[in-house]
Amino acid sequence: MSGSSLFFILALCAALAITVPPLGAYLAQVYDTTEGAKAPGDRVFRPIERLIYRLTRVDEKREQRWSTYTISLLAFSLMSLLAVYLFQRFQTHLPFNPTSATAVNPAGAFNVAVSFMTNTNWQWYSGEVAMSHLTQMVGLTVQNFVSAGAGMAVLVALIRGISRRGQRTLGNFWVDMTRSIVRVLIPLSLIFAVVLISRGVIQNFHGATTAHTIEGATQSIPGGPVASQEAIKQIGSNGGGFFNANSAHPFENPDGWSNFIELWAILAIPFGFALAYGRMVGDRRQGKLLITVMIVMWAAFSGVAVLAEGNGNPRLATVGVDQSISTTQAGGNMEGKDVRFGPAECGTWAGATTGTSNGSVNCMHDSFTPLGGLSTLSHMMLGEVSPGGLGVGLMGLLIHALLAVFIAGLMVGRTPEYLGKKVQAAEMKLVTIYILMMPIALLVFAAASVMLKSAQASILNPGAHGLSEVLYAYASAANNNGSAFAGLNAGTQWYTITQGIAMLIGRFGLIIPALAIGGSFVRKQRVPETSGTFPTHTALYGVLVLGVVVIVAGLTFFPALALGPIVEHLSL
Amino acid sequence: MRAFLRQLVPAFLMLAVFTVITGVVYPLVVTAVGQAAFKDKADGSLLKVDGVIVGSTLIGQTFAEPKYFHPRPSNAGKGYDGYASSGTNLGPTNPVLIDAVKQRVIDYRTENNLPATLPVPVDAVTSSASGLDPEISVANADLQAQRVATTRNLPLETVQKLITSNTVGRSLGMLNEPGVNVLTLNVALDQAK
Amino acid sequence: MTATLTPESEEHSSAAGKNTKKSASLFDPSIVKGATWDALKKLDPRTMVRNPVMFVVEIGSVLTTVLFFQHLHDSSGDVNKFSGLVAAWLWFTVLFANFAEAMAEGRGKAQAAALRKTRADTTARVRQPDGTIIEKSSALLAVGDLCVVTAGEVIPGDGDIVEGIATVDESAITGESAPVIRESGGDRSAVTGGTRVLSDEVVVSISAKPGESFLDRMIALVEGSSRQKTPNEIALSILLAGLTIIFLLAVVTLQPFAAYSSAHQPIIVLVALLVCLIPTTIGGLLSAIGIAGMDRLVQRNVLAMSGRAVEAAGDVSTLLLDKTGTITYGSRQAAEFLPVHGVTEAELAEAALASSLADETPEGRSIVVFAMDRYGVAKTTDRDAVMVPFTAQTRMSGMDFSNGRQVRKGATDSVKRYCAELGGEVPLELTPITDSVSRDGATPLVVIDQTPGNKPRILGVIRLKDTVKPGMTERFDQLRAMGIRTIMITGDNPLTAAAIAKEAGVDDFLAEATPEDKMALIKREQEGGKLVAMTGDGTNDAPALAQADVGVAMNTGTQAAKEAGNMVDLDSNPTKLIEIVEIGKQLLITRGALTTFSIANDVAKYFAIIPAMFSGVIPVLNDLNIMHLHSPRSAILAAVIFNALIIIALVPLALRGVKFVAEAAGAVLRRNLLIYGLGGIIAPFIGIKVIDLIIVALGVK
């Protein structure tokens, strides 16, 4: 790694360190729905929210129990699924289709609809070809906002479950989602989109512009409302690109500045939620502890990716390739990387995008070195908690924190309790379901895929790397990440349908138990803290949470990883 | 089930409202602001020579003639297809990759008249992520400079100066890797004649 | 510096001595023998299915055994040896887990057998309403029957004495050989079926149906037959089942991945991997830990009516302790002799000593010691002097000298009555003295002396002072460190209470406490989410005992109190509450520690088995064989054997419980994480390597 790469990473950390704490404070205020609570920007946002509630006939004062909250989420998700599906199926009959994109096939449209509704944004298609501008805008971009908003709402409900005592309700889903979108996602995206345009990200409604090259050939240069989608794609932890090459495409991510701020956008809100959490439960140390755990994992996995990619591919060295890092070239493993980013900015991005369930890429993960690929794949397998997607990331970490507290609680000789709430059989059942869902979706479908001849045919790279492609595909789907080892042809019926199911499990198989835990917690009284209470803000507990996340995932996936990237690495 | 059906009404209305706000109003506002403030960039940083659009400074294109600097291998369609952005996705141990790179190394050395043992800059023989990489590394450009200069009968220094002036350096000394914009460099070369 | 709270530090040495008497040594040969047989019987799938983790192992054992025989003919000798050994060790794994459970149960069964002997049918003499007495088998008694029991007879069922007073030998249940006094009315009326009346005759009103008596419940408890999973155990079982599913998934899906990598695996190897990964260590020991936890309570002579109560004890954050007997000596110590006018202290001391020689209670002994040490009084040289022991009727002890002199000492009222009977006069100043002693929270005993021909003479008062037990302050400090607040309950006035509370170092006190006050205090604490533990014996304690999360009734107490509480202390030693809390905590800690250990073990097992599985086809994976195990087969076998042996190795820990140290939660966790977490990662690396070396030396290739 060169010195300037190190500065780049430090600068990113500094930018986060400065902006995340106020962001966390702001988020905590956004979700304070207690009577008479004030939040910044009320004068602007309140009228908009009131209008939305009036139009949608939502009574914002009416709180919901966990079951109603969940049902609201499910109803909304179903509507979203239908809308995105129909937009794709009928895009030929709808306006804003300058490139004459055809109707998407049913299985493929199902996959895309699930993908965007679940905030996964897995893309088996090439955006510039398959989708009309209308589908991109009113289908996909809308889902970028609302699926993120829904995820944020779910976390807020869980947090209320932890912080409230002896109550029944967790808040109102419609209100929490609306506030997330109106007060966080839209304002940030508006600013961010304009900044991106200033760096060269396009924003127009043109079709192709034909260029006549100086060698006498022609080149079609795409158009489209890219910046508006790119902004929410990063802020909303979505990751679905306007173009096939995603954030490696020069029109999505033109230069070092755009790359830097997009990285910031991927990470800032997920980290901010950890600090908001501390404020919302009235003990900021809790938030600081969780953010530290997130940072440690994020830094470790990103670091491995940066270093592994910087070291290059030994097999290429043997055929006369210069991969050294110097002042005249970025060096390292440049297959699947654009010159302007190089290994350091790609590795950093890879760590950010797989740690957050964002899933956008600025380089091709499939062409990573085995160690770099292992880092991204296993980072997702942790369950997207470092720092994880919008809302759902912290939700996942909180579930792991409960598991850690359960084991710790037993080891100190008391019925385990988290922030004064006893963790008992009912909660452990839900925690166990939560922990089971992702590995089931991942391992079962991946195993089936390598057994089926037809599914095997989708694999691009031979040998162990091929297994990694399949594992990556389902790790991405089951964790709602969306990035890919894109060599795998995921456009077949098998993959579009099973990936769709994996994404649904990865979304609702986790959200429903988490909300149920919130519903169970919210009724409980808080046990007062004594010195016999195991403190959940100490480094020791941090190590335990970290250990639980890493060991649970490690034990589940080590055999599969051993046959994939680990073998490939050892055979280099 | 009845509870679910009851929630479908607000679900539909919410989706409709947010489709209007985030799917129509939001992109239109962004487009309006972007077009007003940064029209050239919002339209794709198009480069015109004598009034003709020759490409986008952000999107790489194919250059095959020896008098031009050559871009990196591209996997976008048949090469730099603006509507087929893509990397190769070949894995690091895939023999297809290794063999292709091996051949490119040989070709690169032959094309640029380089010693058979000289290590070739990695970007020159590997495909980019987007397939539309507008840049090559300075090391890559330096090794092509002699060929371009010879073909064009230009002094090497002139070509080297043009490389430097078309190099996009690090922003703030740490953001992005330095790279040479192939399109602007080649246009500049044509104009230097 | 932290001190461990072990029974040895318990001040009541008599209680500790009794414990060792009752508990069998950890591996009593007869229990081991029974447990071995039970372990085999527990292989019944209908029994095994209750423990999902071990049930999976049993299925794996069956599967590998079938495969072993199926391929006996078409495989090489080495392969057969390997398959056979894996199958055998998988069976051992199941058996070892069953053995652990059987061991824990066996220890209870031994105790139950002893108890059952005392339950043998007796004939009860039931007094009919018309006064006639009919004989009836004790098995046919109904609630409300009035049974007449005379000296030498066994009390036929649980009940309350409604008439009379008697000394009762309760050693069958309590193990305490000294007889206790039970009398009608008041708080010492409860008797237990199976105990024996030693003196006098009483009428007992039966309060429990046959088969539901205290003794029956006790037998069921120690046998573990009525054992239900406790809440935390259920929660842990769910987690373990979840982990088992995850590993099942990981192993089942490994086969397709392996096949894709052209490294298709024999089923036997996959089963071995699965068994090694699923949490067999904790899964196998979980019920043993629970049974042993209850057993530890029984050994301390505490009967918990439910496992839930034991766990609740670990969660207690407020402890209500009665002052007398818990914080201070229930048996008070002589602190002063207060003679009446005209009597010297030396005179009083001599009589006090003489009258106390027959008194074997701690109070009596303390008077003897005090008189000898402070006043240099010697014991009498009168060889023919007759000691008069304390009886329930007289409530006095004393000595009859050969010259006819009689000295007595006893409670004020008894002595006054005695004095009056003998025609003596009670000095006017006696009442002020005894009153002032009482006011200070101390107890007065009056000494009376009668020489032949003279009127009896009250000499004065022995002041028995309440003394805070040594070590209590430290104990409360430890409790505080564990996050438990102690509140002293006393009938004393606030001034006295405050003084003693300060001396003892309790966090708070409730003075002049009435049962209603106690109840209110418990409710107040509970409203704040705290769990409260208390002890009690009287009928008026019953509501509070029922309200408290952990209510420990004294065995000497009333039947009502015993019904209301969720534990009964057979020793009637209120200090026990602290031990109960520790046992509750220890139970959870042991579960948590072994869970952590079990899961941490998996890391090493992966490093043993994964390279072994694949290094044949994919040689580079042998780089993961960081233990340098001899061969794939020896590696897998070593992991399987380690997995089985570790269960046996941890049986003593499961039965005895993880050492409990009274510290703040953070410190406890740090230590346990180091020992069982880090230790759990490291230990199997060493263990598997050693086993590998041994089995290779024994000829496994």
In summary, what is this structure?
The complex is a heterotrimer of chains A (572), B (193) and C (701). Chain A is mostly helical and 572 residues long.
Number of helices of chain B: 7
According to DSSP, the number of beta strands of chain B is 6
Q: Helical proportion of chain C? A: 40-55%
Uncertain residue ranges of chain C: 1-24
The tally of beta strands of chain C, per DSSP, is 22
Strand order of the largest sheet of chain C: 10-22-21-20-11-18-19
Give the biggest beta sheet of chain B. 3 strands, antiparallel
What is the number of domains of chain B?
2
- Distance between the ends of chain C: 51 Å
Main beta sheet strand tally, sense and closure of chain C: 7 strands, mixed
Strands across the major sheet of chain B, in which order? Answer: 4-6-5
Radius of gyration of chain C, in Å, reads 32 Å
Instruction: Enumerate the spans of chain B where pLDDT stays under 50 for 5 or more consecutive residues.
Output: none
Classify the helix fraction of chain B into a percent range.
40-55%
Give the quaternary arrangement of the chains: heterotrimer
Biggest interface between chains: A-B, 138 and 111 residues
